[in-house]
Amino acid sequence: MKMVSAIIKHFKLDDVRKALTDIGIVGMTSIEVKGFGRQKGHMEVYRGVEYEVQFLPKVKIEVAVPEEKIDDVLKAIQEGAKTGESGEIGDGKIFIYSLENVIRIRTGESGREAI
Hints:
This protein is 19% helix and 36% strand. It is α+β, with helices and mostly antiparallel strands. It has a single domain, classed as Alpha-Beta Plaits. The strands form 2 sheets. A 4-stranded antiparallel sheet has the order 2-5-1-6, covered by helices on one side. Strands 3-4 form a two-stranded antiparallel ribbon. The longest helix is centred in the middle third of the chain and has 12 residues, at 70-81. It is elongated, with a radius of gyration of 17 Å. The mean pLDDT is 91.
């Protein structure tokens, strides 16, 4: 099992959710986060005063998947999160972790059945 964690732009969340649903993924967690990478930050104006925003708002999604679905999940996230034809700076990153075990609290099922 793998845990896939992706940082994406807010407005791409529904596209990523739909892409994952289309390949049979039935559960996902999303968390609002702030951060920066190569995109750095940007300047904004508030009440006539210009200031620098260093941490940009993003969404972090997490999906637990069986090994055999990992390639499909990665492709779905990449296609759903990419902006434009070739993508743009700040589209995000995907992280993949090994997942030792999963336990469904309600039934006590564990492993693959709990996903």
